[in-house]
């Protein structure tokens, strides 16, 4: 007997992107994102503006995703949404919409941990793309999080390393701001780094124990170095921009991969994946590819579309939870802080 196809509507609204996706089994039929350009002029995401924009965007985005997927609302089996972590005002919009949609359509809703969604984006079906084999390590790196996750099954994972202060993505953006780049500056550092010498300048790196990270010291080191050099030569940054970008990027990537390598060696795991917004960084991908060749690792990179915040990763996570009957009720509430340890897996 043929198994019934599962159709999930995914909703992602944890920060400043409003996204909706339709997934049939493990295949994405649509994955649409409405971005908020208004934050660029403020040099960062303004929570109040983000939540207002979500309210304006969510219905049109969901409507467009359903139409693009070619399904009827009545065919949707469940709605999966990001419960947290993220900006509270933004999360409330997605959660409230999902509760209303689930009630109106009389379907179950599934509350998803945003960070688990990043990890499980690797299991979206795509022609010819290999998927990680269990157990594997996933380096999940974004503007708000930096984690090494031990993944033993789709819904069985544990954070074994995390940042004790700033995230790697935040370090990229703050360094970019010091260099005079507009927000978001991380991709601009990556662009200029391709033309620079990664060994031209050296910055201090943390020596935190175990598999944890710290990037606050690195940011301070960059700030003091630039202040000192600009006093000597006011054109220092513009004259050395490519080398500065390459050196800063090299310092962040080196910190990330040293701890990942330590974890892989000690746990004897050769299946390695990366996820999150910073996983789109070309320098990180190249460095990890080189390291994987040396270490005989099998490395998995997400499609660029699934690196940044998107509803496809929420939908695929919802699909695995749907199969386990892991549903939420109408009393569910968004939460800005939502650790993977709290996730009922």
How would you describe this structure to a colleague?
This protein is of the alpha/beta class. The chain has 2 domains: 7-122 and 307-342, Nucleotidyltransferase, domain 5 (2-Layer Sandwich), CATH 3.30.420; 132-302, 2-Layer Sandwich (Nucleotidyltransferase, domain 5). Helix content is 41%, strand content 18%. The chain is built from 10 helices and 10 strands. The protein has helices at residues 47-69, 88-105, 114-120, 168-178, 186-193, 216-232, 236-239, 241-267, 282-295, 311-323, and strands spanning 7-12, 18-24, 27-34, 78-84, 109-113, 136-141, 146-153, 156-162, 271-275, 298-300. Strands 3-2-1-4-5 form a 5-stranded mixed β-sheet, with helices on both faces. Helix 3 crosses helix 10 (311-323), helix 4 packs antiparallel against helix 8 (241-267) and helix 5 packs across helix 8. 46% of the residues are buried.
Order of strands, main sheet, comes to 3-2-1-4-5
Low-confidence stretches: none
SSE-based structural type: alpha/beta
Number of domains: 2
* Share of β-strand residues: 15-25%
Helix count, DSSP H or I runs of 4 or more residues: 10
- Principal-axis shape: globular
Question: Could you give the distance between the termini?
Answer: 29 Å
Largest sheet: 5 strands, mixed
Total number of strands? 10
One letter per element, helices H and strands E, the order comes to EEEHEHEHEEEHHHHHEHEH
What is the average per-residue confidence, as pLDDT, rounded to a whole number? 93
- CA radius of gyration is 21 Å
CATH architecture of the largest domain: 2-Layer Sandwich
Q: Which percent bin holds the helix content?
A: 40-55%
- CATH class of the largest domain equals Alpha Beta
Question: What is the fold-level CATH name, i.e. the topology of the largest domain?
Answer: Nucleotidyltransferase, domain 5
Name the CATH superfamily classification of the largest domain.
ATPase, nucleotide binding domain
């Amino acid at each position: 007997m043929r198994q019934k196809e599962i159709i999930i509507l995914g909703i992602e609204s944890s920060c400043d992107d409003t996204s909706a996706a339709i997934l049939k089994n493990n295949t994405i039929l649509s994955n649409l994102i409405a971005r908020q350009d208004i934050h660029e002029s403020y040099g960062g995401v303004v929570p109040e503006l983000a939540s207002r924009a979500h309210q304006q965007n969510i219905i049109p985005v969901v409507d467009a995703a359903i139409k693009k997927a070619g399904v009827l609302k009545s065919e949707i089996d469940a709605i999966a949404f990001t419960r947290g972590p993220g900006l509270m005002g933004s999360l409330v919009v997605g959660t409230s919409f999902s509760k209303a949609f689930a009630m109106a359509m009389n379907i179950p809703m599934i509350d998803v941990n945003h960070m688990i969604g990043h990890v499980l984006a690797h299991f979206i079906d795509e022609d010819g793309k290999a998927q990680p084999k269990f157990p594997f390590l996933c380096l999940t790196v974004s503007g708000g999080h930096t984690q090494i996750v031990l993944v033993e099954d789709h819904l069985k994972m544990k954070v074994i390393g995390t940042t004790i202060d700033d995230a790697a993505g935040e370090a990229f953006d703050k360094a970019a701001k010091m260099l005079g780049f507009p927000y978001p500056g991380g991709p601009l550092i990556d662009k200029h780094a391709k033309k620079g010498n990664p060994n031209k300048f050296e910055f201090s790196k943390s020596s935190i124990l175990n598999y944890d990270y710290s990037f606050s010291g690195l940011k301070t080191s960059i700030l003091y170095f630039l202040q000192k050099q600009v006093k000597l030569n006011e054109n220092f940054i513009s004259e050395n921009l490519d080398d500065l970008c390459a050196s800063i990027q090299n310092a962040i990537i080196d910190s990330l991969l040293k701890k990942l390598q330590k974890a892989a060696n000690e746990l004897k795991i050769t299946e390695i994946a990366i996820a999150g917004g910073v996983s789109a960084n070309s320098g990180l991908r190249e460095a990890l590819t080189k390291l994987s060749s040396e270490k005989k690792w099998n490395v998995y990179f997400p499609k660029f579309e699934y690196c940044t915040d998107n509803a496809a990763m929420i939908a695929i996570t919802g699909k695995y939870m749907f199969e386990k009957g892991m549903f939420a009720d109408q009393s569910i509430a968004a939460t800005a802080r939502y650790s993977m340890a709290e996730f009922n897996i």
